[in-house]
Amino acid sequence: MGKIKFTPEKKIEIIEAYKSGKVAYSQLQDVYGMNRDEIYRWISKYEANGIEAFVSGNRRYSAYAAPREQQNRG
């Protein structure tokens, strides 16, 4: 079985439920097949960048991508 992909909205829903204490880590693991490190990474990203952490593209996205694209156009 492959890794489950989550939408940005679902990630935020999961993060907020976990942080509010509505769901425990063990429940996330059982329901979504997640591990503790993954949820902690999501929380760190969300706290640092809000929803943009999850909608800014893929792993290869960087702060330098937008300036390079603009240079290539101009």
Helical fraction equals 55-70%
State which percent range the strand residues make up: under 5%
Helix/strand structural class: mainly alpha
Distance between the termini: 45 Å
Radius of gyration: 15 Å
Unreliable residue stretches: 60-73
Output the helix-strand order: HHHHH
| Mean pLDDT reading | 76
**Main beta sheet, described?**
none
Quickly describe the structure:
This protein is mainly α and 74 residues long. Helices cover 65% and strands 0% of the residues. The chain has five helices and no strands.
Provide the fold topology.
Layout: H1 8-20, H2 25-32, H3 36-49, H4 52-55, H5 65-73
Helix pairs in contact: 1-3
Short key terms for the protein model shown above:
74 residues
Q: Can you describe this structure?
A:
This protein is an all-alpha fold. It contains 5 helices and no strands. The protein has helices at 8-20, 25-32, 36-49, 52-55, 65-73. Helix 1 (8-20) packs across helix 3 (36-49). The protein is globular. Mean pLDDT is 76; it is low at 60-73.
